[in-house]
Design brief:
eight-stranded mixed barrel, transmembrane, TIM Barrel, Nucleotide_cyclase, Bifunctional diguanylate cyclase/phosphodiesterase, 19 helices, Rev_trsase/Diguanyl_cyclase, Alpha-Beta Plaits, disordered N terminus, membrane, 514 residues, 2 domains
């Protein structure tokens, strides 16, 4: 009886053995040459050895199977995309107008790039190799599996008489559960999740194997869109949603390139003086046909398209242009805040580019507030992000920690990144004037900030009561719909004029500071 491990290895070898297809006649070549040597000696052997290849070439034997070598992945030994597509074409034909049933599955390890960043490429290769082995162990001998991306696998189930949606979902679940088991590496256990998309042959759109494969990939995209560790079967609804997302990505990219996505500016005011202490530049998309597209819709589309860094550059340029225009109009706006995307913070040339932009606009660095999300600080960012944030602070820029309280940034990381100001998330501010528990949380944050010599700004202030409470508790600045909504630049001057007029008769609220 075979050892279970030996049996597993034999199954894997059968599935990943090199595929070398050639003219069948070549199989007899060794026997022909050996027989020639025994019958005619060396002279005959030389004649046959030199003459047969020339004869085969003249007859076109070699050309008949040109490209029949199917390359394999060097890490897993699996088929690559080209070989998989050949198998898929054959299965598609075998199941066409027959009672045989099949399905294509596409699996991808979630957050594989982050795994590489944390543990290195060698660890990533080990994870992919082990996941490939687990997939093979879970499949039948005649099923086909391929590695079609850095962390992506494709499976084509061998045609059978009985295969329905329920069985395929169960198989996808078993594959996912197998891949999500911890992997031991250098004495440590690595945990990963994976997403699965599949398409039944009977539900495939179009009339080609390529359409079938594209449908499985669309199902995978839908699974990933709804969070990690998802499983989705292809349907017409998925096709419509996938196309809509694709169209949105293209439209958003064109809008960014064409200048439709511009910053709108939301005012921030001091609780001590009531004066404008700055504006935050917020991306807004004014579509010529559909009107205002919410950021929650177009920002993910830009992120999927890899355009967040370009968006940051556009926002920075327009924000500095606004500062110069406010100066020229004789109004005092101390600083403008710009949100910097994670992709932007990974750019090695970021600090030099910001320095160049400030010099080009003849503005001191302290008039730019670089806004970074708390999750950027709390997620153990790589060395380049750390160097860039520290470098921007050393340049003189104000570093604002956005959405404070929603992540897990420690006091040590706040100090390490040289944070200038923390922005208290609106979830703490909402109804704080009527909720004693909210007031305690805000008070604790403000006490911590005071001890660390940090300025504070509360976001999402919508009522006079919230404004008054925050001022009394000692919050330095406030921002929100109750102060002013985001507005195009050309409306900011009128808003500032109207706000200054209100200050003439407004009573002072807040604590007096020495």
């Amino acid at each position: 009886m075979l050892n279970p491990d030996s049996d597993r290895l034999m199954r894997i070898r059968r599935k990943i053995a090199p595929v070398l297809l050639g003219p069948p006649i070549l199989a007899f070549l060794p026997a022909v040459t050996l027989g020639t040597f025994w019958l005619g000696g060396e002279a005959a052997l030389l004649t046959v050895a030199l003459g047969l290849p020339l004869l085969f070439a003249a007859l076109g034997v070699f050309g008949k199977d040109k490209g029949s070598y199917i390359p394999r992945d060097s890490v897993t030994g699996m088929l690559l995309r080209e070989g998989f597509e050949l198998v898929l074409d054959q299965v598609h034909n075998d199941t066409d107008d027959t009672s045989l049933k099949s399905a294509v599955m596409v699996l991808e390890i979630d957050e594989y790039k982050e795994l590489i960043a944390r543990h290195g490429q060698s660890a990533g290769d080990s994870v992919v190799q082990r996941c490939g082995e687990r997939i093979i162990e879970a499949l039948r001998d005649k099923d086909t599996v391929a590695r079609i991306g850095d962390s992506k696998f494709a499976i084509c189930l061998t045609p059978v008489q009985n295969l329905d949606l329920e069985l395929t979902v169960q198989m996808a679940g078993r594959l996912q559960a197998s891949l999500e088991q911890p992997i031991s590496l250098d004495g440590a256990s690595l945990y990963q999740s994976c997403s699965v998309g599949f398409c039944m042959r009977s539900r495939a759109p179009g009339h080609s194997a390529a359409d079938w494969f594209a449908a499985a990939n669309a199902a995978l995209a839908e699974a990933q869109h709804n969070g990690p560790s998802g499983i989705r079967a292809y349907s017409n609804d998925i096709h419509r949603r996938t196309k809509a997302r694709s169209d949105l990505r293209e439209d958003a990219a064109a809008a960014l390139e064409g200048g439709q996505i511009q910053p709108w500016f939301q005012p921030q005011i001091s609780t001590d003086t009531g004066k404008v202490s700055g504006f935050e530049a917020l991306a807004r998309w004014s579509h010529p046909v559909h009107g205002m597209i919410p950021p929650s819709t177009f920002l993910p589309a830009l992120e999927e398209a890899g355009l967040m860094e370009q968006l940051s550059q556009v926002m920075l340029y327009h924000a500095l242009t606004a500062l110069k225009a406010w100066d020229a109009a004789g109004v005092e706006v101390p600083a403008v805040g710009v949100n910097f995307a994670t992709d932007e913070l990974k750019n090695p040339g970021l600090v030099d580019r910001v320095k160049w932009e400030m010099e080009r606009f003849e503005l001191p660095p302290e008039r730019l507030a670089v806004e970074i999300l708390e999750t950027v600080v709390s997620d153990s960012p790589d060395d380049m992000i750390t160097r860039n944030i520290y470098g921007l602070g050393a340049l003189g820029c104000q570093i604002d920690l956005d959405d404070f309280g929603t992540g897990h940034a420690s006091i040590a990381s706040v100090r390490r990144f040289n944070i200038s100001r923390i922005k208290i998330d609106r979830s703490f501010v909402m109804k704080a004037d009527r909720d004693p528990e909210q007031q305690k949380l805000i008070g604790a944050i403000l006490t911590m900030a005071e001890r660390l010599d940090l300025e504070t700004l509360a976001e999402g202030v919508e009522t006079v009561g919230e404004h008054a409470l925050l001022a009394q508790l000692g919050c330095d600045h406030v921002q929100g719909f109750g102060i002013g909504r985001p507005m195009p630049f050309d409306q900011t001057l009128d808003w500032i004029t109207a706000h200054q007029a209100k200050l003439q008769d407004a009573p002072v609220i807040g604590t007096q500071r020495p």
